[in-house]
From TrEMBL:
Protein name: G/U mismatch-specific DNA glycosylase
Record-level Gene Ontology MF annotations: hydrolase activity, acting on glycosyl bonds
Pfam families: UDG
The organism of origin for this protein: Streptomyces yanii
Uracil-DNA glycosylase-like domain: residues covered: 15-176
Keywords: DNA damage, DNA repair, Glycosidase, Hydrolase
């Protein structure tokens, strides 16, 4: 991907990978320029979402970003708090996060997933006005969905290793009663 192609993806909207009645709807902060350019969520090299999803037992093998629609067969989906692609999440305003929280709430109420997993506790805090939220299950429910704040899988989040993230994602998987699919599923 050339720098020009990446810049052309700025502010692009990437379609959600969703269906009604999902077990877990993962919610990123917003698409990266790489995601905007490819149309595949968590596509930036160094993003640990796909490896962590597999290590935690949500998928039977590590999926590539281009295989994102396969998540639906496991009852999983992806959306974002803020829909527009940027180079960095710090380019987003608090108002965009709050507006994104309202839009996300409407999506969840319509699609009715069992769990909403917000991938980035800071994004969750800002979008929903939960200033003291921590990683883990939240008291809040949205449209009947339980909410869990997960660590951001960005390679920039050095506080969490892939293994420690996989353990947290695995806690969600267990709480959701999610049995890991076998490779033959």
């Amino acid at each position: 991907m050339t720098p020009e192609e990446l810049q052309a993806a700025r502010d692009r909207i990437v379609p959600d990978v969703v269906a009604g009645g999902l077990r877990v709807l993962f919610c990123g902060i917003n698409p990266s320029l790489m995601t905007g350019a490819t149309g595949h969520h968590f596509a930036r090299p160094g993003n640990r979402f796909w490896p962590v999803l597999h290590l935690s037992g949500f998928t039977p093998r590590q999926l590539k970003p281009s295989e994102q629609r396969e998540l639906l067969t496991y009852g999983l989906g992806i959306t974002n708090v803020v829909a527009r692609a940027t180079a960095r999440a710090d380019e987003l305003t608090a108002e965009e996060f709050r507006e994104g929280g309202l839009i996300l709430t409407a999506k969840v109420e319509q699609m009715r997933p069992q769990w909403l997993a917000v991938v980035g506790v800071t994004a969750y805090r800002t979008a929903f006005g939960e200033r003291h939220a921590q990683i883990g299950p939240q008291d809040r429910t949205i449209g009947g969905a339980r909410v869990w704040a997960l660590p951001n899988p960005s390679g920039l989040n050095a506080h969490w290793t892939a293994q420690s993230m996989a353990e947290e994602y695995g806690r969600l998987r267990a709480a959701a009663g999610f049995t890991a699919p076998s490779p033959s599923d």
